């Protein structure tokens, strides 16, 4: 476990969580309006980024179990936001894509967040390049830390090796 945080680590944590909370206020309003949960949104955004992703790949990408992912996909498919199709030559692989309604929802949810970030960019002014460099380093460090996390415990062995 970590020892006591240094003053700069404490400042980092405070600044990080304040920024996350501020962005979340904007996003949560939209999510509540459309009656979607955070896990459902994670699925929608990942399927939008990688059309044709399978449930197993999706589970690994969002860091939850295959059974949890299957349930989320089922609910989103029932709402007409995700479409499940079949892969040629392998009926076990079921590629996922957003429907037109799913694309429209994700696009509409994105609008207020983009406007918020545009205002943040304007507030930063000439400091935008320095802040962007720091955020890129934060994203890289975060990705490395996430990659070091153990696999999800109840993934099927064949799924965990892909």
Structure overview:
The protein is mainly alpha-helical. The chain contains 7 helices and 2 strands. Strands 1-2 form a two-stranded antiparallel sheet. Helix 1 runs antiparallel to helix 5, helix 2 crosses helix 4 and helix 3 packs across helix 4. The chain is globular. The two termini are 31 Å apart. The C terminus is likely disordered.
As a whole number of angstroms, the C-alpha radius of gyration is: 19 Å
The first-level CATH class is given as: Mainly Alpha
Strand order of the largest sheet: 1-2
| CATH topology grouping | Arc Repressor Mutant, subunit A
Strand count, sense and barrel status of the largest sheet are:
2 strands, antiparallel
Q: Give the helix tally.
A: 7
Approximately how much helix is present in the residues?
Answer: 55-70%
Query: Which superfamily, in CATH terms, is the homologous superfamily?
Result: Winged helix-like DNA-binding domain superfamily/Winged helix DNA-binding domain
> Strand share of the residues?
under 5%
Note the run of SSEs as H and E.
HHHHEEHHH
Poorly predicted segments: 155-162
The secondary-structure class comes to mainly alpha
- Whole-number tally of structural domains: 1
What's the mean pLDDT score? Answer: 86
Shape annotation: globular
């Amino acid at each position: 476990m970590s020892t006591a945080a240094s003053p700069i680590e404490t400042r980092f944590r405070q600044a990080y969580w304040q920024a996350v909370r501020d962005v979340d206020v904007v996003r949560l309003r939209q999510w509540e309006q459309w009656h979607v949960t955070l896990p459902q949104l994670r699925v929608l955004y990942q399927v939008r980024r990688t059309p044709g992703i399978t449930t197993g790949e999706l589970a690994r990408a969002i860091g939850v179990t295959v059974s949890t992912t299957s349930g989320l996909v089922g609910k989103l498919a029932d709402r007409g936001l995700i479409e499940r199709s079949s892969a040629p030559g392998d009926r076990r692989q079921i590629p996922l894509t957003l429907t037109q309604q799913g694309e429209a929802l994700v696009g509409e949810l994105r609008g207020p967040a983009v406007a918020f970030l545009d205002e943040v960019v304007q507030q930063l002014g000439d400091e935008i390049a320095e802040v962007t460099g720091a955020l890129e380093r934060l994203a890289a460090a975060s990705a490395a830390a996430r990659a070091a996390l153990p696999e999800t415990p109840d993934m099927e062995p064949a799924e965990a090796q892909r």
